[in-house]
Every structure is written in C-alpha cells, then in structure tokens.
Amino acid sequence: xxxxxxxxxxxxxxxxxxxxxxxxxxxxxxxxxxxxxxxxxxxxxxxxxxxxxxxxxxxxxxxxxxxxxxxxxxxxxxxxxxxxxxxxxxxxxxxxxxxxxxxxxxxxxxxxxxxxxxxxxxxxxxxxxxxxxxxxxxxxxxxxxxxxxxxxxxxxxxxxxxx
Length: 163
What we know:
By secondary structure, this protein is mostly helical. It contains 7 helices and 4 strands.
C-alpha cells in the first residue's frame, strides 16, 4: 500500500523541489529517462486500496500485466487518480476486463481481505515500501539505476555457482 494513512479521497500532491510540471526531480528524472519510461509528477496521491483490489481482480482474470501497464500509464503518463472507481473502470476496459463486474467487487469489498492479507504478509517479511525488490537474500526499496539491479543479480548468480 502506498501511504496507508492516505484518506479515501486521496491528497493533492505538492510539487517537490526540483520538479517541473512534466518531470520529477533528480535522481529519478535521469533514471526515468535512462529507462525510457514516462513518469510525470502526479497531481494526487491516491488511497491505493481500490487500485490494489482492482489489480487482484485483474490477476484472478489472467490480466495482471496488462492491467498493471495500463494503470501505470494512467497514473504516470495521464496523471489520473487511481483512487477513483471511474478511472479504474476505464483502465479495466482498456485491457478487456469486465469493468462493471470489477467495480461491483470493489464497492462490495469482495477482495479487501485478500489484499489486506497480502499487505500484512509483506510487512511480516520486512517490506515497507513501494517498489521493493528481492534478489536472493538482498532486499531493496525504491527506484534505482539499472546498474544496481545488474549488480544484485550478478551477486546472486555468483552465490549460486557451485564452488
């Protein structure tokens, strides 16, 4: 969960030092460009419970990656509020999910217990931030340059090689 204390309606996000209207501050700005991604500063910090439940719905219907990519684009490129049901319905439609059925699941909190269980499990494993990466016995949180991932993977692969 991104900032679990965020109210249901989300929070207006204040521009951070070094940001422009269309670009995040350094070092994220350079990392985003190097990775060929789009990450425009969002206008709102959403309460992510609905988005997580919608992602679980997509997972259960075999559309996790498609939904994930469409939600990423909606949030980071189009600056849409993923805490809003109508936005999540739009995202669902773009990946051929039944948006009406998904929204009904969200409104009735059908997936809330599952999502909260996943959240509690993550906390038990020491995961406290988004994104968190686990490579072997290494765990790191946040956006990092490609070289960090490459180094972590090389360290893991070296440790797996029989001596």
